[in-house]
Amino acid sequence: MNRKELLRVKRHNRIRMKMQGTKDKPRLVIRRSLNNLSAQIIDDTENKVLFSFSTANKDFRQKGIAYGNIKSAILFGEAFSKMAKEKGISKIIFDRAGYLYHGRVKAFAESLRKGGMEF
């Protein structure tokens, strides 16, 4: 693990101490790589993943766009919020996983809010 990733993990651990996802308000964790974004909704009281989705999924890949940029983060946020609404999840705690709140992470979060997610 390089130094930059190690610092991100330390930031994430510090953030995680302060937030706890529940059944009523689960925690949404984002994972960012160079080519893809993925997100999971987690209930920390039961240690259970309620829902997960990624830009690498076949459902999302059919749209035929680049997957590691801001435009795809916006489309991914809209698709993720729609699928989460279908599962009955509308209120979440947004866990940025130690990533800075700009670029793809910010675009994803704002598109979630446009899609009707509350956090």
* Unreliable residue runs: none
General form: globular
Q: Any idea of the CATH class?
A: Alpha Beta
Count up the helices: 4
The oligomeric state is single chain
Brief summary of the model shown:
With 119 residues, the protein is an alpha+beta fold. The chain has helices at residues 3-16, 58-61, 70-86, 104-114; strands at 27-32, 37-43, 48-54, 93-95. The chain is built from 4 helices and 4 strands; from the N terminus they run H-E-E-E-H-H-E-H.
Can you tag this structure with a few keywords?
119 residues, alpha+beta, four-stranded mixed sheet, 4 strands, globular
Give your account of this protein's structure:
The protein contains four helices and four strands. Strands 3-2-1-4 form a four-stranded mixed beta sheet, sandwiched between helices. A hairpin with a 4-residue loop joins β1 and β2. The termini are far apart. By secondary structure, it is of the alpha+beta class. The chain has one domain: Nucleotidyltransferase, domain 5 (2-Layer Sandwich), CATH 3.30.420.100. α3 runs parallel beside α4.
